[in-house]
Amino acid sequence: MFFIVVKFQTKPEWTEKWVDLITPFTEATRAEPGNLFFDWSRSVDDENEWVLVEGFTDEGAGPHVNSEHFQKAIATMPQALVRTPQIISRQIDGNGFEPMGEMSVTE
């Protein structure tokens, strides 16, 4: 599995419009056959920081970065950003999220 975390720092005037800008990209990516998860979060410490957590099958990562919607996203996102996004991208064992071993919640 490819596990990817990307931090995006939006310009203040784009922060509230960010979700509208990324929605088509998010929906298209989630529909890809090799996508396991594609989840956005907003920092609790910095309202202008958005964090994307992605998971792809080993076979799905290559087609994702070559897709039309990815190419469109990397062409349109910079207008809303303060700086180049910061990324961690690693190939790891696993197929997605698993229950946390250090904590258990009774359902």
Structure description:
There is one protein chain. With 107 residues, this protein is an alpha+beta fold. It has a single domain, classed as Alpha-Beta Plaits (2-Layer Sandwich), CATH 3.30.70.100. 29% of the residues lie in helices and 28% in strands. The protein contains 4 helices and 4 strands. Strands 2-3-1-4 form a 4-stranded antiparallel sheet, with helices on one face. Strand 2 and strand 3 form a beta hairpin. Helix 2 packs antiparallel against helix 4. The model has no long low-confidence stretch (mean pLDDT 94). Keywords: Monooxygenase, Oxidoreductase.
Layout of strands and helices, then pairs:
Layout: E1 2-9, H1 12-15, H2 18-30, E2 35-42, E3 49-56, H3 61-65, H4 68-76, E4 86-91
Antiparallel strand pairs: 1-3, 1-4, 2-3
Helix pairs in contact: 2-4
Radius of gyration: 15 Å
Share in β-strands: 25-35%
Which percent range fits the helix content? 25-40%
Major β-sheet strand ordering: 2-3-1-4
Known CATH architecture: 2-Layer Sandwich
Poorly predicted sequence stretches spanning 5 or more consecutive residues: none
Task: Tell how many strands the DSSP assignment holds.
Answer: 4
Name the helix and strand elements from N-terminus to C-terminus, one letter apiece.
EHHEEHHE
What is the 3D form?
globular
State the end-to-end CA separation. 29 Å
Question: Largest sheet, described in full?
Answer: 4 strands, antiparallel
Structural category is: alpha+beta
Q: Please, how many domains?
A: 1
Instruction: Examine the coordinates and then state which fold CATH places here, giving the name of the CATH topology.
Output: Alpha-Beta Plaits
